[in-house]
Design brief:
The protein has 224 residues and is α+β, with helices and mostly antiparallel strands. 42% of the residues lie in helices and 13% in strands. Helix 1 packs across helix 6 (141-160) and helix 2 (25-35) crosses helix 6.
Length: 224
């Protein structure tokens, strides 16, 4: 395996604290161009990206943060989480959640601290670049898989450029605000956001390294 590719894959993680250092538009365009090489069913390329910087980014963040502070949580337009959690997924979810909150000094039952940390999502964790992704709501599950591969390509390409990311499904809760501000047509569904920037190494949350199961644990080799 090429070492640069291995390094990009191995170091991709969800960063929750960025510096304000700007990202050149050409770099963003290069990342998106590389990401567009993701496979898709009969080359349908079902993704659409909105890139927010400067005043446009700040306007969206301000309105969504105000809604979050006012406990306005519109219904998400698609089912992201399971309707009922079961093992081993519940244990993994709890493990990473408490690991993050432990780093940040947010104790069990600290609703104010939990809400404050959740609100950081809606400032893209301080990243200078925010992205929103939509998909035609008439497309099927296969196209959603294709979109997921496109998103992963963005995150890996960003690592190749020395940048970090955080994919953020939380933004989909505020699809009405996003749709209005970005003039997204009704036939497109807001899937998620993503922060893009340089990691703030002084941010405590960035000490979190999410554990992964070994390949042996989730793979079955069939040889005969």
């Amino acid at each position: 395996m090429q070492p640069e590719v291995a390094a990009a894959l191995a170091t991709r993680r969800s960063v929750r604290g960025f510096t304000s250092d700007p990202i050149d538009r050409g770099v963003i365009e290069e990342i998106l161009t590389l990401a567009s090489r993701a496979p898709s069913m009969t080359n349908t390329q079902p993704w659409r990206a909105h890139v927010l910087t400067g005043a446009a980014r700040d306007r969206l963040c301000t309105e969504i943060l105000a809604a979050h502070e006012a406990d306005q949580h519109p219904t998400i337009e698609y089912q992201y989480y399971p309707r009922e959690w079961k093992e081993p997924y519940l244990a993994r979810r709890r493990q990473i959640g408490w690991a993050l909150y432990g780093l940040l000094g947010i104790g069990k039952g600290d609703r104010e601290g939990t809400k404050r940390q959740a609100g950081r999502n809606f400032d893209f964790f301080g990243a200078p670049v925010g992205m929103m992704f939509t998909i035609d709501r008439d497309l099927g599950l296969g196209s959603w898989l294709d979109l997921g591969m496109f998103l992963e390509n963005i995150m890996i390409a960003a690592r190749g450029a020395g940048l970090d990311t955080c994919p953020q499904a939380a933004f989909a809760n505020y699809h009405e605000i996003i749709r209005r501000q970005l003039s997204i047509p009704d036939n497109e569904l807001v899937v998620c956001g993503m922060a893009l920037g340089y990691e703030d190494k002084s941010e405590k949350a960035n000490e979190l390294i999410a554990p992964r199961e070994t390949a042996e644990a989730f793979t079955i080799f069939h040889t005969a």
